[in-house]
Design goal:
Structural class: mainly beta
Number of strands: 33
Shape: globular
Number of helices: 3
Largest sheet: 21 strands, parallel
Radius of gyration: 25 Å
Distance between the termini: 53 Å
Helix content: 10-25%
Number of domains: 1
CATH superfamily: Single-stranded right-handed beta-helix, Pectin lyase-like
CATH architecture: 3 Solenoid
Length: 379
């Protein structure tokens, strides 16, 4: 290098370094305001509580209007009650037992409300492969239907599905207690469902090989689902979220295999009552997951897998006592017996005590205890 070029290079270096009098610092990435979804969903719950109480008060005062009240001790009476009310009407199950010998189809927009102590006992069977789903309540082509205030139990030791929502956008399944079913609530081809305040305890028969699938809440196909403030235990997947732009907020998933999974129901995996086999069109995309608790699950608290992408998992989520990881984002994997593609472009904020294993592509993970994948390889 000649002297002139050397002097120029030195001057350039000195000029650049003199401009950087203070070291550059990276501004920490902050989680979004996670109270917004919580407040919105709680407002919906408060409004629904008010609406339901007005209907129950009217019935108690003999002003039931378009409502049909089914007395305690009824047998196979629910279908007739639904048929008797007009579109948008109300069926009230009085406190006590109500027995159904098979699946009841809700084929119009109605509100089914249980008074305190109302118990719906339904004879349904879990599905072996290829057999259509049997559901205690099958909400089909009935948008805006509400099911609330029921204790739902099977007539036998194990039931099939408690509630199946099909082609019924805006359906609300609210404050029910569901016990000993194979599936709690399944949603197919229904946008804007609101599943809130339910207590779901799935049958543990899957742990002794009675059947392979056993889940709390499953969104197969349905955008903008809202899953809020549910308590779910004993399932393979507590919450199985697919499709786009849903919210899972304020839920408690405990003593499941996996607490919450952002994933994709495989093609033709589940047989509807009409004989059609369905799977999710999209893996979980654009979901907001905040204010949840995943505790004492036998594998993972929150699992992001099978192409799930552009989801937000917030700092308000908690996790503890999960056997493997609190949060896992997977690479391409065959862990379920078939290829599930890597999770990608998800944003995760983890609390300092939460273990996070990130094997996916272009995910952003902030905080937590990161698993060293050299020591604990991706699989």
């Amino acid at each position: 290098m000649n002297c002139r070029l050397l002097l120029f290079a030195c001057a350039l270096f000195l000029g650049l370094t003199s401009c950087q009098k203070e070291p550059l610092t990276e501004t920490p990435v902050q989680p979004r305001d996670e109270s917004k979804e919580l407040q919105t969903l709680q407002s919906r719950a408060d409004d629904l509580d008010h609406e339901i109480q007005l209907l129950l008060n009217a019935a108690a005062n003999g002003r039931s209007g378009a409502a049909v009240i089914v007395p305690a001790g009824s047998e196979d009476a629910l279908a007739a009650a639904i048929a008797a009310v007009p579109e948008g009407g109300t069926v009230i199950l009085a406190g006590g037992d109500h027995t159904e010998s098979g699946m009841v189809t809700v084929n119009k927009t109605v509100k089914i409300i249980g008074q305190r102590g109302a118990r719906l006992i339904s004879a349904t069977q879990p599905i072996p492969p290829g057999i259509p789903i049997q559901s205690a309540l099958y909400v089909a082509d009935a948008p805006g239907t509400t099911i609330t205030g029921l204790e739902m139990v099977p007539a036998g030791e194990v039931g099939g599905t408690a509630v199946l929502v099909f082609n019924s956008p805006g359906t609300r399944v609210y404050r029910n207690t569901i016990s000993e079913y194979q599936f709690g609530v399944l949603v197919e081809a229904s946008d804007d469902v609101y599943l809130a305040g339910n207590q779901i305890s799935i049958s543990l028969a899957w742990t002794v090989g009675a059947f392979g699938e056993a889940h709390g809440i499953v969104i197969i196909n349905g955008e903008d689902a809202a899953i809020f403030n549910n308590d779910i235990q004993h399932a393979v997947f507590g919450i199985w979220a697919c499709d786009k732009y849903g919210t899972a907020v304020g839920n408690r998933m405990h003593d499941n295999l996996i607490g919450l999974i952002l994933c994709k129901v495989p093609e033709a995996a589940l047989p509807l009552p009409n004989g059609t086999f369905v799977g999710a069109e999209f893996s979980a995309t654009g979901w907001t997951v905040t204010n949840n608790q995943a505790k004492n699950n036998f594998d993972t608290g929150y699992l992001v897998i099978d192409g799930a992408n552009n989801n937000y998992m917030g700092i308000s989520n908690t996790a503890s006592g999960n056997a493997h990881y609190d949060i896992e984002l997977t690479a391409d994997t065959y862990r379920f017996g078939f290829l599930t593609p890597a999770a990608f472009e998800n944003e995760v904020f983890a609390r300092p005590n939460m273990t996070v294993k990130d094997c996916g592509n272009d995910n952003e993970v902030h905080g937590g205890i990161l698993v060293d994948t050299n020591l604990d390889p991706c699989f």
